[in-house]
Amino acid sequence: MKIFTTLARHRATSVALMMAAGSLTALDVAAAVPIPGLFSTGTDNVGAVLLAGAADTHYALSKSGGDGPSVGTSGFVAPDSGFPIGYWVANTATSKWLAPAVNAAATYDATSNGIYTWTLSFNLSGYDPLSASFSGRWATDNSGQIKLNGTLLAVGSSSGFNTWTNFSSTGGSFATGLNTLDFIVTNLAQSGGNPTGLQVQFLSSSVTPVPEPESYGMLLAGLGLVGFVTRRRLLHSGVLA
Question: What's this model's pTM, rounded to 2 decimal places?
């Protein structure tokens, strides 16, 4: 009977050790989540589309070169119909065009090209940047480039306003902490009927949280306690001298 009791104790202890080790593995491989702070153009903080004419403050706007009306620090949601929609790809259920002014049809850059930089910032503090990835598509009036923390991700054509262009990024281009995603749009000079804008639609994103150091400490302490109890029982049973 004593032998069977000892074996049962050893078996229970082994199960406890395996469960603790499994917990450590599960903690190390945390569940991936969507990247916080990635917003399609023309959406609010929960991803719902904004009304036409609303300001989208997720994307900071700046301009260099060109001429025509000055721009503010953010863009405005374009309506679903009326010029330039029809020439531009349509707004979607999850993204909208942004223009520099409430009047999306306003003309810019009559005599020289204007460069419009739309910047989306997001923070990966508490996440593993090497695990990060996203994919999406964009449209621009006219051509454009996408840069993540200065690294070129995609280039759009001069007729980028009437078709979607896909983009994506994985791993190495992401940074710990603050990240900046720049959509740099070149509006080609034209004397009239020359609006400019940007539409971005994120299709997927993923990043893995980094477990808190306290979580590892507590689990390792538990493993140490199980090991101590196991050794005591083995000594008591005479398995260890």
Answer: 0.79
